Every structure is written in C-alpha cells, then in structure tokens.
Structure prediction request, 473 residues.
Amino acid sequence: MQKKKTTVSLELIELYSTLLNEIWGKVSELIGESLLAFLMQLTIDRVSDKVSLLKGIRVSEAGISLEAIRDQSKDTSPEDIHRAFQGFVKNLFNAFTAITENVINRELFSTVIPKLREAEKMLSQ
Amino acid sequence: MRIVFKNLRILWSIINAINASAELADIIEAAGSRLSQLFDLLAFSILLKEDLDLYIYCDESSSRLFIDEVTVNTIKTFSFITGERLNREQVNKRLAMRRFESRWKGTSDGRLKSSISLPLVNEGEVLGCASLNSDHPNAFDAQALQFFSLITYQMISSMKHSQVISSMKDMAIYDTLTHLHNRRHLEQVLEKEFGNSALKKEPLSIVMVDIDHFKAINDRYGHDEGDKALIHIGSLLKASLRKHDIVARFGGEEFLVVLPRTIMKDAVIIAERIRRSVEVTPLSAGDIKIHLTVSLGIAAIPAVWPDSKEELIKFADTALYEAKDKGRNRVCFYVPTQDSPAKGILSK
Prediction:
C-alpha cells in the first residue's frame, strides 16, 4: 500500500512537472522568460508560507524544475501533493489574471484543464 | 500578412525611439506618444517605484472618470506586483494628453473596460509597472501582449542604461561622503558665475568655511565621527542657504559657498547664519554631543575686483585665515588695504 502511494506521488509530480513546463513554454512565448520567472517566483514566495512543499520548486530563466520535490515525495501523500500543486496553479492563474486579465489564461485552459482532470483520476484510482 | 509586417515595422520604430532616449522622461515619452500606433488604447500608464511617479499618456477625448479608473487600476496592479499597499494620494500623477489614432469602430461609454499590465523587472528588482488601457472590452490579445512585452523589455533596458549614466554624472559632480557638490563642479559653476558677474556687472560673493579643530575631532573620536562631522556640517550648510546658492566640499574639512548676485552685506548675514547654526547644533555621537564651530572667510564683488575666480578664492581664503587667527568661530571678510589685506568682523 505504502509503495503504491509513493508511486502515485511520483507520478503526480511527473504530471505537474509536465504541466508547469507546458505553461512555461506557452507563457514565455508571450511575455518572455525573465518576466515569467519573476511571476512564478512571486507566486511561489506567496504560497510556500502555507505549503512548504512548494519551496522545492526551482525557477530560473532556463525554466522550472521539481527535482527537489521528487526527493520529498515519499514522505508526502498524493492528496497533499495534488492539493499543493492545484493551489500553486490557481495562484499562478490569479497572478496572470491580475496583470493581463484573461489574455494569458485563455492560452492555457486547453493545456491545464485536461492535466488537472488526469491528476484527479490518478487519485481516485 | 501585410498587417503583420506593418505592425512589426511600427513595433521596431517604437523600440528604436525608446532605445535612442537617454533620459527617463524621454524613454516614457517615446513609448507614451507612440503606443497608440500599435495598440487599441485610450491610455498608457506607467508607475515607477523609486519616486512613485505615475505617468499617464491618454487620448485627449479621455474623461476624468476614465483617467481616475486608469489611476486606480495601475496602482492596484503595482500593489499586486510589489506587495506594497499604495493609495492614490501617495503617487505623483503626471498627465499627458495626446491625440491617439483610434482603431475601435464600436461605441464606448468612456469607461475603462480592459487593460494589460506588465511588471518592469530588472534582475529580480521591480522598477514599476506599465499598462495599456482601453475603453472597450477585450481590446488586447496574445499578440498585443507579445508586442507590449518586447516594448517593456526595451524600456527596462533603456531605464537601467539611463540610471547608469545618471549615477556616473552624479559621481562626476557630487562628493560621495557629504553629497554636496565636489570641488571640480564648483569651480565650473564659479567660472560661469564669475563670467556673468564681470559681464553684467552683478555682485558675487563666496564664503570659505572651515571646521575648527577638525584634527582634534578625528584624534579624539576617530575617523568615523570625523566623517559624520563633515556630513553634519554639509547638511547645516545646505539648510542655511537659499535655493540658488551653491555649496561644495572644497577639500578636507573646507567648504566653499557661492552666492550669486549677492553683495557683501548679505553674504555676511548668510555666513553668520551658518556660523550660528553650527554653533547651536551639536553632532550626536552615541550618548555624547560633540560641539562644533566653523570659521568663515568672505570675498565679494564689487568690494574687491579680482582678475580671476582663483584670485577671488584666494581673497576668501585670506579672510578665513584672519578668522582663524582672531580665535575661530567667527566670520571675516576680505577688504584690501595697504597695510592689512583682510579685516575681521567679530561675530560672537
């Protein structure tokens, strides 16, 4: 049972890693890597006080990495991982909305919604 | 395709105009006066963190209500980016009305309907934020955002360049310790004022100021307190002068004040004000108070007719030595006589 939970946690991290890198690819085309790295870091700083797991997200102008979080995954339940990343994505969308209304988010819905559904499906299995 | 090329051409012309601007105000003007060629906007706004200056370039048809909404929206975005709560009373609003090209074919009630904003960030440091504002909904799409981000990147780069130039200019004219002008700059100013005085037959006074027993302060309290004494005297000098007077650190513990269009009588009043201000305002060094005094020497045109600014400085220096010689903490002025080059005024 424990082994299965760890596997799901790792799969969830993999899924969110893919999702965040897809967001990175689409948004950096619109506003550039430097500005996107700033907005991502701003979001991490604001949410990681409540969700310490997110402190492990590494952002630079080269992209986004969840390597540090992978190491912590065996001690964190899949539900907590999903909740943490769902919250992060929500806050990131809020940041995009605050500055560009729906211009960025419109470009992301088709990528983000299926991935969130996939994550929920993984949890329910 | 033709429209895309046209827009790219406009984009490059805006970026080139920003790139060619060296001063901050010119960078903002270059963007503010051109962005309507590329975007469907009624106002461009930019709020800068350093002095909280809010520039709004808007179409001349903009209503007061629209400008208010742009102000509030820009401040709100800035607060989101920086995490600093701001209200409209804290910003310095600078409004520029322009005639913008309009691409909007529909009707409008003149209210703010859509806006996109981008943070101005350089190496993680927030410089401010810039916004495009429109009176119709969904005025900006993904391509508008791409173009606007390229423009803001150029603005950031030009603003940083302008800051570097500005700080280099400051270093060239200001004394790094006291933040007063330095000797080199003062000599340039004095050269100009001396020329004006000779040409227009206008009075000109200078005051040489020297801290009494400065070496003893350094020896007794250390060089850090000595530096604080220089800063302290510098700020008292600035506070004692009029708007058009110029003061500089002349070297060591000496300062020189240039009083344009000022006769000897008025120069004596100003010098005495400086002397008194230093005498009654001790320097706080931890728990103790260090009482400082200064000696001052004045040279004034037309009381004297020097051949050069160097000679004018020499006369002020002679008067300063007279003040030191007579017991310090006093003001002396230079009056050429046959047997004594300077005459002292006992000002205590």
User: Anything to note?
Assistant: The beta strands of chain A are 58-60, 63-65. The longest helix of chain A spans residues 2-31. Chain A has five helices and two strands. The radius of gyration of chain A is 14 Å.
